[in-house]
Design brief:
By secondary structure, this protein is α/β, with parallel strands linked by helices. The protein has 2 domains: about 130 residues, Rossmann fold (3-Layer(aba) Sandwich), CATH 3.40.50; about 180 residues, 2-Layer Sandwich (Dihydrodipicolinate Reductase, domain 2), CATH 3.30.360.10. Helix content is about 40%, strand content about 20%. The protein has 13 helices and 13 strands. A 7-stranded mixed beta sheet has the order 12-11-7-10-9-8-13. It has a 6-stranded parallel beta sheet with strand order 3-2-1-4-5-6, sandwiched between helices. Helix 1 packs across helix 12.
């Protein structure tokens, strides 16, 4: 049995989810002769001790002690501002790193991190979990097989059921950077094309406090790809019907939609149509439960040298460049060209 020890930094909401998923990996990996063990740390030490005890994991008081304990891979689930230093620490230790998106607070701050990783031949996987969702994987297969023909339109939707705390929104970088960056990433990954321009608009008809901290609660971006294909990306903080994440791909020979299942957060206006009839997802964690587990499964394989990096830092920064352009267009009211420096698309 091969032991893989993962060190987790940060046990807030998403960190606890990752901790649970890491401990559950053995169900899939034990038959392959792989045993995954978890060590974790957080500045909120008592909370971290409690999480560790509940999962049968090991708690260490500091990041330095965690990295120095001989872990095989580092998982970063802390606030965005801490990502650059933690990525560097993992790279310096010579171990693969998994980091929640984004690489840094903005593209300007992320670029030196990319240089640091490259100069040291570091291995860093960024957490864009939609790349592991079954629906998006099938859409990519269908697109690449040519069965949809040539694509004339793409429509991506990300809508939360309710907004996060205003305190979080104030530091999120804006709706496009916080939510729609996932759509920008998946559009690049699915099509293999770069988004070259964005024209965005938005509104704030919900809590006035969101506007007071400089954000909108609903936004729409029209995007153009480098081959002339067009698409739209919409987002909202107020989708009372449930958490709604979909992607519609329309081609010359066929159309396909990701997220159109029994739990889709919508209903038909047509007489006699009862689909979808399930209870909609309430949060992103439910919607992408399996995808979050699959991306950590992939990280273990990356640690063991069994696969290529499924989402590089360059990919993540390329998506962030599009989000930056969308935020700029939202502020200025004019189309904005996406700045050069796109990443290398991971498989």
């Amino acid at each position: 049995m091969k032991d893989v020890v993962l060190g987790l930094v940060g046990v807030g909401r998403i960190g606890v989810m990752h901790a649970n998923n890491i401990t559950a990996l053995n169900t899939d990996l034990n038959p392959a002769g792989i045993n995954v063990r978890l060590r974790l740390t957080d500045v909120a030490q008592e909370h971290a001790r409690s999480v560790a005890a509940g999962l049968g994991a090991e708690f260490l008081p500091t990041v330095e002690e965690l990295i120095g304990s001989g872990i095989d891979g580092l998982v970063i689930a802390t606030g965005t501002a801490t990502h650059p230093d933690l990525i560097r620490a993992g790279v310096d230790a010579g171990i693969p790193v998994f980091c929640e998106k984004p690489v840094a607070m903005n593209v300007e701050d992320a670029l030196p991190v990319l240089d640091y990783i490259r100069a040291r031949n570091g291995v860093v996987q960024i957490g864009h979990q939609r790349r592991f969702d079954a629906g998006y994987l099938e859409a990519r297969r269908a697109f690449q097989s040519g069965e949809l023909g040539w694509i004339h339109s793409l429509r991506a939707v990300t809508c939360d059921m309710a907004p996060p705390p205003v305190e979080f929104i104030a530091t999120s970088g804006g709706l496009f950077r916080d939510c729609s960056v996932h759509d920008f990433d998946i559009l690049r990954w699915l099509t293999g094309r770069e988004i070259v321009s964005v024209y965005a608009t938005g509104s704030n008809n919900g809590d006035p406090a969101i506007g007071a901290v400089g954000d909108v609660d609903t936004a729409l971006a029209v995007v153009a790809f480098d081959d002339g294909t067009v698409g739209s990306v919409s987002a909202s903080r107020y989708n009372g019907a449930g958490h709604d994440v979909r992607l519609e791909i329309q081609g010359s020979a066929g159309s396909l939609m990701v997220g159109l299942d029994e739990k889709a957060a919508l209903r038909s206006a047509e007489a006699g149509v009862s689909f979808p009839g399930g209870t909609p997802h309430q949060t992103f964690a439910e919607r992408f439960d399996q995808a979050y587990r699959s991306e950590l499964h992939a990280f273990v394989e990356l640690v063991l040298g069994l696969r290529e990096n499924p989402c590089t830092p360059e990919d993540a920064v390329a998506a962030s460049r599009v989000a930056d352009a969308a935020q700029e267009s939202l502020a200025t009211g004019v189309p904005v060209a996406v700045r050069s420096g796109a990443g290398l698309l991971s498989s």
